[in-house]
Amino acid sequence: MIEVQQLSGGYPDTPVIQNFNVSLERGEFFAMLGPNGSGKTTLFHLLSGRLSKTSGEVLIAGTPLEKMRKLDKAKKMAVLSQEVQVSFDYTVEEVVRLGRYPHQNGFLKLLSAEDQRVIDEVLNLTRTEQFRNTRFRMISGGEKQRVLLAKALAQEPEILLLDEPTNHLDIKHTFELLDLLKTWQVERGVTVFAILHDLNVASLYADRVALLHEGRFQDVGSVDVLRDEEQLQHVYEVNVRTQPHPDVAKPQLLMVPKPEDAPLEPDDFRRQYSIEQTTGHVHVTFNAPVRAASSSVTGAGIDWLKHFCNFHVEKHYNSESPAEDVEMWMNELDIPPAQAAGMMTAVRTEDAVFVEDERHGIRLLAAVTAGVGNAVDITAQDTNVENFEVGTINMMLFLDAHLTDGALINGIASMTEAKTKALHDQGVKDGATQTTATGTSTDSVLLAATQRGEATPYAGSGTAVGRAIGEVVYEAVCEALKKYDEREGRA
Ligand SMILES: Nc1ncnc2c1ncn2[C@@H]1O[C@H](COP(=O)(O)OP(=O)(O)OP(=O)(O)O)[C@@H](O)[C@H]1O
What's the confidence (pLDDT) of residue 381? Predict the structure, then answer.
């Protein structure tokens, strides 16, 4: 649909774009990204014909751009640029009507019923209908942007060239406009070429992205281009991290600011937290957020948290909304739920086991409660997970270490292996099958790290961290199981 061959152009003393090649398929959404001054607008103007090239070729559906008649070009291509060019005191509808100009016939260029239908449709789609009779100059920057898009859509073009189309728009209108563009692109096969500054928006909407750097394409490809942290750091000169969007299979970027705080003293891990233990709960509070991965009732997943709670519930506790209950109990204790992970157990919280130690060079704190009334062999076919009794193993482990997300997951696996070994060595059986239990039916696990020092990518048994995790979890679970037996009068 658009073929750019060996294109060069720019300004008299600044060539900017040199020997540029790119090919855009019909119906694709192509986003051009790049830092300030990288040449995006210059390339945009060369493609729209506003700037004359010095050499090379821009072909629109096979025809050289400069050979196209103005009206034919306007039928093929609509341009939404940063400069608002509305010279007269038009109403919004009159501005949008200008978009129909290439389609109007005859000397008088009268508005047909079809023209009016299209105008009404685009006013509706861009949610600018209510300003129809308002003077264009009287509406806000974001509203103007939507009206100018309506004008561009009214052209019913095959190609949309958009320079920062979401400029001035709030989040709601940004996403409404991009959803609208995506629908036009998909349903009508419109080719969209857009300059975007927001890399996360580009990742969500573009089929292909190009990273422009000093007048050249640094990279062109699928949105996976935005997974290359090193390249982004080189082009934008900022510390950037990329991560998957939680709901959509696209990367999203996070900027990393310069560290604010001075590094903590190496020996102060013990001073970083406090422990509260009552008959109702265990509450570990850290002075600063630690990075935690957990399967707890609230605060599950990976997050930065400061509060870690394990609440005691009655043996026959049964609730439709345990997460709401946990948050209510947190609120009663003035613990902000957004900064907390919460577990629950029918085991007495006075029997919680704490281990504060240094293992394999890593300072750590473990907090475990264990009950095995619901002990289950996860590999057994006939186990009875419905048979609820007191029994859950809740494990929290805090490390003075720096674990990547992968290492946190690896560490959770190490914790689970150590727990299962403890159950085996303590002779805990699945009540239904009498085979060795691998856990209970409602266990929770949490692993958190202060993120100080060098990042560790692994936390399996082949690493010092993994071995520290294995040792301390095994000991704490064995100790908690003994306390449970004593409490149940079995010891
Ligand atoms: N009218 C002009 N005359 C001379 N040089 C110009 C002109 N406009 C832009 N330039 C130069 O061309 C280079 C590329 O500018 P361009 O506007 O294409 O960058 P951009 O990627 O669109 O930047 P931004 O993100 O800031 O809009 C810059 O070095 C700029 O100073």
Answer: 78
Which atom of ligand 1 sits closest to the CA of residue 34?
Answer: 21
The domain locations on the chain are 2-255, 269-487
The first and second tokens of residue 103, run together, are 């389609």
- Topology (CATH) of 269-487: L-amino peptidase D-ALA esterase/amidase (3.60.70)
Is 286 in contact with 273 (CB distance < 8 Å)? yes
pLDDT for 258 = 78
Q: Residue 304: which H helix or E strand, with range?
A: strand 301-312
What is the CATH T-level fold of the domain 2-255, as seen in this structure? Rossmann fold (3.40.50)
pLDDT in tens, 22-81: 999 999 999 999 999 999 999 999 999 989 999 999 999 899 998 998 888 888 999 988
Residues in contact with ligand 1 by the CB-under-6-Å rule are 11, 14, 16, 34, 36-42
What is the CA angle 170-174-178, rounded to 5?
175
Q: Which atom of ligand 1 is nearest to the CA of 39?
A: 18
* ipTM score for this prediction: 0.96
